[in-house]
Write a structure and sequence with these properties.
With about 325 residues, the chain is an alpha/beta fold. About 35% of the residues lie in helices and about 15% in strands. The chain has helices spanning about 15-30, 70-80, 95-105, 115-120, 135-140, 175-180, 185-200, 215-220, 240-250, 260-270, 280-285, 325-330; strands at about 5-10, 35-40, 55-60, 85-90, 105-110, 125, 160-170, 205, 230-235, 250-255, 270-275, 290-295.
Length: about 325
């Protein structure tokens, strides 16, 4: 097997996708410890660098720009200039094999998307979407290594646990909301969750990022326990993914939506409870007692439908009709 020294890893998507990709990078680094790893990603996900020392350099490819084809040509140019000896690319688009071929990189790994990919790629790997996303990405390097990293790992020093604490991060990305992808319960339900947890003697810490301001404002304007010694408003105090990771690490339990903080919590092995609606929890969380999916008993025959059958959530949102009592009972039991 070749001893690769300069690796280009390509993975486009949100910060959650980049965290899913970390086990792949970890195994590559174990197999090729002297290698430099450059990650090509979208600018919106650059904060992954706060979570790991595995990434030596980054190439930003802004696919949200109108001229995304220029961005891809830029990637090809920089890949050729970088003199990489291995490229590993996620994504099931049929054009990926063409892009990798145009980089001139000798050894390439990507998903098998048909005859062209099998002809152009050194290793065309079967794409199995019916598994935890970390495992799906890790399949890309099966031809290169016997290492198997199952969960993400982040470079955050474990914090001392604060007893009896429940950290709540209710929000989801503004981009998903703008796209019509509703993935969490209403802010007033979150507010009732906060009050019920405090009534049950839990120390509740509320956190969120800039995208969550509207949700946080509604919660703060609705809760009755705002002045309780058992409630702490931490909104705006986490300035980076590293700050948030340290806060998650310090919490006894973590409650969140299907969003990037979930995957940070998985990496930190914090006891986590996550609201799931239209997305598939089996693909987004590992099979572990450390991560509990909270779902509605809606018996919708189409669930999970988001990304599987539709690109936006439906109007009824029966899958998110989860009561505050059900959420709190799950955490307390």
């Amino acid at each position: 097997m070749s001893d690769f020294k300069n690796i280009l890893a390509i993975n486009f998507g949100g910060i959650g996708d980049e965290i899913f990709f970390l086990p792949t990078l970890i195994s590559l680094k174990k197999q090729f410890p002297q290698a430099k790893i450059t990650l090509a990603l979208e600018p919106r996900s650059k904060s992954v660098k706060d979570l790991t020392d595995l990434i030596d350099d980054m190439i930003f490819v802004d696919l949200k720009k109108k001229n995304k084809y220029f961005e891809l040509l830029k990637l090809i140019f920089l890949a050729r200039k970088g003199k990489f000896d291995l490229a590993v690319s996620a994504g099931g688009n049929k054009f990926i094999s063409i892009i990798l071929s145009l980089t001139g990189i000798k050894t390439t790994c990507g998903y098998d998307t048909g005859d062209l990919s099998r002809k152009l790629l050194t290793h065309a790997v079967p794409l199995n979407k019916n598994q935890y996303a970390c495992a799906m990405y890790h399949d890309l390097i099966r031809p290169l290594t016997n290492y198997n990293t199952e969960l993400p790992e982040v470079n955050i020093t474990p914090q001392e646990k604060r007893p009896n604490t429940v950290l709540i991060h209710p929000g989801v990305s503004k981009m998903s909301i703008e796209k019509g992808c509703i993935k969490t319960v209403d802010a007033k339900v979150w507010a009732k969750v906060v009050d019920l947890l405090v009534q049950n003697g839990k120390h509740v810490i509320l956190a969120g990022g800039p995208d969550d301001k509207e949700c946080i404002d509604t919660i703060l304007g609705t809760i009755n326990c705002k002045n309780s010694e058992l409630f702490e408003n931490y909104y705006g105090k986490t300035r980076s993914m590293r700050d948030l990771g340290e806060l998650i690490s310090s919490a006894e339990k973590f409650l969140c939506s299907d969003s990037a903080p979930l995957h940070v919590a998985v990496a930190l092995r914090t006891q986590t409870y996550v609201i799931f609606g239209s997305t598939d929890d089996k693909k987004l969380i590992p099979q572990s007692d450390k991560v509990v999916a909270i779902k509605a008993n809606d018996n919708c025959p189409l669930k999970p439908c988001l990304w599987e059958r539709r690109m936006t959530t439906c109007e009824s949102l029966d899958c998110l009709k989860i009561t505050a009592e059900d959420i709190v009972n799950c955490i307390l039991n």
